[in-house]
Amino acid sequence: MANVSSGGGLTPTSLETIIWLVVAIAILFALFRFTIRLYALNKLLWDDLAVAAALIFLLILAVMYRYATPIMFELVDVAEGKETPTRDFLQRSSVFLKLQFVIIVIFWTEVWSVKASFLIFYRHLFAGLPELMLGWWLISAKEKIALGTIFSVGLIKITFAVIRVVKIGASAKHVNPIWLALWSMIEASVAVVVASLPSFRVLFAHGRRQSQIRRAVTLKTFQRHRSQRYSNDLIEPLDSERESEGARTAANGAEEVDLERQRTK
Fold it and tell me: Rounded to two decimals, what is the model's pTM?
């Protein structure tokens, strides 16, 4: 069994737990993104497909690290002199190196899929740049902050990329593969989460439009009822006057009939 000090306190089980935890968070955010797009737009766009591709590559990475983790801890322990190489150590090391090569390719493919998603998103956004620049002076301060936040979410990804480089010791001659696996999976998962954040803006905007529509309908209904009530207030007195006049006419007619009968007698 690998010594816990090999990974700075990590064991194979704890490493796999962290990996699948961050992957689950990424999946959750991606599903929220797709659900929001379908709810607000009734369709998925090309940037959504890029995020879906990144999510698939992320799952492949997690599965590959699932098989590479035991060999990885064994390699670190043997390198630190904490474990004696077994008979099939060289064969297992060769398998790990091949896995590591594929993992690196898939990792950068996943990262570039996320970048492609942002590029497509910004392309659609900048397509209406003149209107956007004009609208910037018409929107509220809260909406300006929300728009600025959309443009700055990439800083989160950059922050985790810097942490990954620092933690794995990129300047050292030998990189600890355990730390490389941990921070690579964290960075890849954070990339999917960050790519999913701008879509939440669509939900808020859609909700605000629905609220504005409801307020407009309520106001229109209120005005219609008020106008109808005003009309009724004008019509009801006229009807009362007409009824009173008719009653007076009927009474006068009855009096004339009685007088005519008395003359006849």
Answer: 0.66
